Amino acid sequence: MTANPASTALWPAPHASGAVDATVHVPGSKSVTNRALVLAALASEPGWLRRPLRSRDTLLMADALRAMGIEIEEGVGPDGTGEAWRVLPTGLRGPATVDVGNAGTVMRFLPPVATLADGPVRFDGDPRSYERPLNGVIDALRHLGARIDDDGRGALPLTVHGGGALEGGTVSVDASSSSQFVSALLLSAPRFNQGVEVRHTGATLPSLPHIRMTVDMLRAVGAQVDSPESGGEPNVWRVTPGALLGRDLTIEPDLSNAQPFLAAALVTGGRVVVPDWPARTTQPGDRLREIFTEMGGSCELTEQGLVFTGSGSIHGIDVDLGEVGELTPGIAAVAALADSPSTLRGVAHLRLHETDRLAALTKEINELGGDVTETADGLHIRPRRLHGGLFHTYEDHRMATAGAVIGLGVEGVRIENVATTAKTLPDFPELWAGMLGA
Ligand SMILES: O=C(O)C1=C[C@@H](OP(=O)(O)O)[C@@H](O)[C@H](O)C1
Ligand SMILES: C=C(OP(=O)(O)O)C(=O)O
Questions:
Q1: What residue spans define the domains of the chain?
Q2: Residues 201, 234 contacting (CB under 8 angstroms)
Q3: Nearest residue CA, atom 13 of ligand 1?
Q4: pLDDT per residue over 158-187, tens digit each?
Q5: What pTM was computed for the model?
Q6: What is the dihedral of CA 222, 228, 233, 235, to 10 degrees?
Q7: Which CATH architecture has domain 30-250?
Q8: I want to staple 393 with a disulfide (CB 3.0 to 4.6 A). Which of 78, 184, 399, 418 is the partner?
Q9: 363 annotated binding-site participant
């Protein structure tokens, strides 16, 4: 958790003068876009992504696949409406160089893809990417037949020496530090000679909905997958080798990025509508309907989308966020403004996200006068009267949006490097101003 000295730009977080009443069109899901790109690149025929998220993480994914020979044309869709990317798969090529930035999806999902390239693929990224766990993917790929050079830490930077194919087979992985280890191995597995059987061995497994998202999206492109939910053994997933279909897929809005806007309704006692909220989804952000209702709001899925209304009161919550860890910063922000304490549990692995999110939230909320303590696996938040001040973001998009939520209720909050929201939501300041009617 190091502050960014180079980024001195401060964004005065708007203070809400009244209840918000807005419709917010939230851009596409990072997690769905990056899975769709990988699956389309591995398919045996061209495919379309409609309404993809255009953000740092997804552009890094597209550029990385292009570096390995995949053509991705950015344009409008087959019916002439809306942004759509056409993906033209081909034999994967090396040598290539991949910049992962600080995108967990890129650094974990692509080394398995690179084993299928016909030459070396070098992976590098932001300084923080060197600290994020990758050992589960590296060790598993070596076990499945890959040759990988790293510096022995089980992390970036590294080179995957693609041999044009990977044997595959059965592998055990401790994915307690990131569900993305499991997703990474499953996504490329239809192209491994023997497919894969992944057995998770760790004591805990975070972000299960994201693994379900991987399984659902694999099945949607024709892969055969056995999973614990479909009657298989707990913590075991099997993917059969086979060709993948090119699909025409419309990307759902990013429900985790809807969070700050729903939080705005909660904090100001207002109303926010998010169009195109899916009736059924594996996105973890869907849990917000339940969590933010318990914290004082109410919601309804209508023809217009999700209508979320704040009551004017915010209640504390005691909740296990292990399945939906990426929602923690936004929930912590709301909890800091609540009328009773909160306990957020099950999220020890957040210490290895974009930054150490538990330390960052504790420090930044406390510097505004809050009373937050870290626990072994989460946060205790005792609401206090907060004051304005500088809110550091540590190159973490969700720290920036969490600070903006606090700023709605507390005058004089200034957010350092709001541009870091570009990781998944480049238009955040404009969307925020639009919601506030500015
Ligand atoms: O697979 C995915 O798209 C993601 C999985 C989760 O990662 P972890 O399991 O590492 O928390 C989540 O936090 C991240 O934002 C996106
Ligand atoms: C943890 C996150 O991202 P990543 O995909 O980089 O792991 C996140 O978006 O909250």
A1: 10-27+253-435, 30-250
A2: no
A3: 326
A4: 999 999 999 999 999 999 999 999 999 999
A5: 0.97
A6: 110
A7: Alpha-beta prism (3.65)
A8: 399
A9: no
Q: Note whether 187 and 141 are within 8 A (CB).
A: no
Report the atom number in ligand 2 closest to the C-alpha of 178: 7
**pLDDT tens digit sequence for 357-379:** 999 999 999 999 999 999 999 99
Query: Are 254 and 3 a contacting pair, CB within 8 Å?
Result: no
170, HSE (Cβ side, Cα atoms, 13 Å):
3
- For the residues of 187-243, what is the DSSP string, one character each? HHGGGSTT-EEEEE-SS----HHHHHHHHHHHHHTT--EE-GGGT--TTEEEE----
For residue 432 the two structure tokens come to 């925020």
Indicate whether 109 pLDDT > 90: yes
The alpha carbons of the chain give a radius of gyration, in whole angstroms, of 21
Between the CA of 104 and the centroid of ligand 1 the distance, in Å, is 7
Distance (Å, rounded) from C-alpha 336 to C-alpha 331?
Answer: 9
Is 10-27+253-435 a domain of CATH 3.30.70.2190?
Answer: no
DSSP-based three-state secondary structure for 410: coil
Q: Is 179 in the pocket of ligand 2 (CB under 6 A)?
A: no
Query: 10-27+253-435 and 30-250: same fold?
Result: yes
Distances (CA, A) of 42 to 395, 404, 424, 432: 31, 39, 24, 37
ipTM metric? 0.99
71 is known as an active-site residue: no
Helix 259-268 × helix 397-409 angle, to 10°: 10
Closest-lying ligand 1 atom to the alpha carbon of residue 350: 11
